Automatic annotation (TrEMBL):
Gene Ontology cellular component terms for the protein in this record: cytosol
PANTHER family in UniProt: CHROMOSOME 1, WHOLE GENOME SHOTGUN SEQUENCE, CYTOSOLIC ARGININE SENSOR FOR MTORC1 SUBUNIT 1
Gene name for this UniProt entry: Castor1
Subunit comment: Forms homodimers and heterodimers with CASTOR2. Interacts with the GATOR2 complex which is composed of MIOS, SEC13, SEH1L, WDR24 and WDR59; the interaction is negatively regulated by arginine. Interacts with TM4SF5; the interaction is positively regulated by leucine and is negatively regulated by arginine.
Keywords, sorted A to Z: Cytoplasm, Phosphoprotein, Ubl conjugation
The CASTOR ACT domain, residue ranges: 11-78, 201-262
One of the record's GO molecular function terms: arginine binding
UniProt family annotation: Belongs to the GATS family.
Protein name: Cytosolic arginine sensor for mTORC1 subunit 1
One GO term (biological process): negative regulation of TORC1 signaling
Localization, UniProt: Cytoplasm, Cytosol
Amino acid sequence: ELPPSEFMQVADSTWLVLSVVSNGREPPGCQATGVTKIARSVIAPLAEHHVSVLMLSTYQTDFILVRERDLPVVIHTLAGEFDIYREESGECVPVTCDDVSNGFLKPKPPASPTLHPVQSPQTRFCVLTVAPDTLPAIATMLIDVLFYSHSPSWDAATSSQDLDSITFFSFSLIEGYISIVMDAETQKRFPSDLLLTSSTGELWRMVRIGGQPLGFDECGIVAQIAEPLAAADISAYYISTFNFDHALVPEEGIAEVIQLLQQRQEGGR
């Protein structure tokens, strides 16, 4: 319904949302959350089969977006590990490989992935949620932060290789559930009694992936970050965008994360 505009670009693909629901089969002691929890079972296999994914972690759960045309490959890849359902008129209907066998392509030999640079600004972030009935009370502040707060220009944001801080604000409304990522300074502008966070109230640091716009075509970007973190059992929220990808990790673990990713880059040269 949005009118055509020279200021808006729309990707030519239609994307489908995969919601991964746990059935309690994780091994004992597995405490990792976010993208780390599904790195080995979902993200890595899709990357190996050349499926490009967009990742959206929220306060409540994690979503993986795949192109509609890649659905046959996705289902064949994941059917051995997961029970797969599609939603029809609000009901979950089982999907089998036979349902989508037409057009299935065997994976090509894996190509050497591009190793994208990573940056870790000093900014500290919060992952929050808001009760839907309290949203009107902060609506004006949300609009101000989203559309009117100062943010650096594109040239300024990309010219510095060592960012001390970064402007980042994410708001998602999915089936009535609200998830917000904001820096700790911005959080102070909101009424503290309306923003809900985990009982620990932990702060997060960001690893930003990419030195130039990543686009949507390249495969394996999420896997490059998620797999090392999964191996170290480090929780991470992950948000894909057109320009950069963003992984949020607990503040106390940022030094270990940077070391792991540096080792990944050195090993890939």
